[in-house]
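(Fold this chain)
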Amino acid sequence: MSPDKDVFRRTFFLCWLLICLFASPAGALAVEGRLLSDGAPVSGGIVSAYSNAGLQGAPVGVSVPSDTDGRYTMDLPRGRYFLSAEWGNLWSYCGRNPVVVAGQPKQWIGFELLQWERPVYGKLPEEGLDGLLKGVVTWKGKPAGGVSISLYLDDEDNFRGMPFIRSVPTGPDGTFAIDLVPESRYYLVARRRASGRTAGPMARGDLFAYYRYNPVEVRGGESVAIHIPLTEKKRDRDIHAIGIEGHEPGFSGLITDITGHPVPGLHVFAYLDPGMEHHRPDAISSLTDRDGRYKIFLPRSGIYYVGARAGFGDSPKPGEYFGFYEGTADHSVTLDAGEFVDGLNISVRKVLAP
């Protein structure tokens, strides 16, 4: 055998070995789904998994290219991941991010890929230290009104916390303009909740978008114009509704009214600060099911103060279900790393009119 052929065979074997190790990590679980664009399958698309909400750095997992029917598969070890899919100028940010890969043998996650455009910069009439961020938001190719654009300086809170800047809702023409934006790099997230709220968990049917070319650089004395196409949220699930039992702390239970009947459609809130009414919750459950059951996972171990209600933000309104966990005098529960507790039941009652 010639030296060139021997080198080729060794190189080929090494590449094959690396691919096998990368694609099938020890104890891996399968994520699979379908890539579509305008309802048609996307062949050759790639799904990437990242360890951070901003999709920065190299992906920690990459799928095999989707087949002619748009189907893809990817093996990942247990953990929380942020997924995106792309093929050329078509791209999508997973509406279920972060995706929790836990005990399930397979998890189906589909993507609707949309066309994205890069930011366009221009000069402002007057030079200054601040910039102008403007653009249009669309839904199914048409202008989308009632959409708020949030600007975040980092992805530390997975874009769930208070943004650095939030625009006023877009009008019927879908346009927005945010002036006097300090020079920096921002992560842009667009949201339209059917409830009309500007904060709180996203629900099924709400519209959202994570801008593909985040973070966007805003320069002093310049304008930057962007187009944001929206995606519909398909599931009622918040970031803390699914976790890895045995690895992440959490608890579950039943929400009932004062007569003992289950109450569906409520959220359970967990706070690290005992002054619950005056702070943003550190974890939020998905809506309780028709049997009043909930499950919530926490960002870390510690003492959490727990309550439940139908609304989000501001004070509970008259007629709204509201209540605290009464298993301890201060409504707290203490959880160690990886500890999961069932049976934290909460009784709620309707807030009376003043």
Q: What stands out?
A: Residues 3-23 form the longest helix (21 residues). The two ends are 91 Å apart (CA to CA).
